[in-house]
Write a structure and sequence with these properties.
Layout: H1 5-113
């Protein structure tokens, strides 16, 4: 009877080994899947951080360019205003000179008549 149980015992042992191997493979596959998911999540988080950093850098660059353009526009308008002021002063001076000349001529004409 003990000798007859040997093949059955060997079959049970083989089945236990197969079950253990299957369990090991399943645990290993689950661990590999978990590791791959974690790596994918880490890559995704890294990409998101890089994207946010790049977006912040570009936003800063755009803001700086806008500020520079606004300053250039302000300076150009100030230069135009200065030119306009100068041209206005020249025109006023010319008008005043012409008026003075007319007044002097009129006064000279009155003196001649007297």
């Amino acid at each position: 009877p003990a000798f007859a149980a040997q093949p059955r015992l060997r079959a049970l042992e083989a089945e236990a080994v197969r079950d253990a191997a299957r369990g090991h493979r399943e645990r290993r596959a689950a661990a590999v899947g978990r590791r791959r998911r974690e790596e994918a999540e880490a890559r995704e988080a890294t990409l998101e951080a890089v994207r946010e950093e790049e977006e912040a850098r570009l936003t800063e660059m755009i803001d700086r360019c806008r500020a520079e353009a606004a300053e250039e526009e302000r300076q150009a308008l100030a230069a135009l205003a200065a030119v306009a002021d100068e041209e206005t002063a020249v025109a006023v001076s010319e008008v005043e000179g012409a008026q003075r000349k007319e007044a002097e001529e009129a006064l000279a004409a009155v003196r001649v008549r007297m």
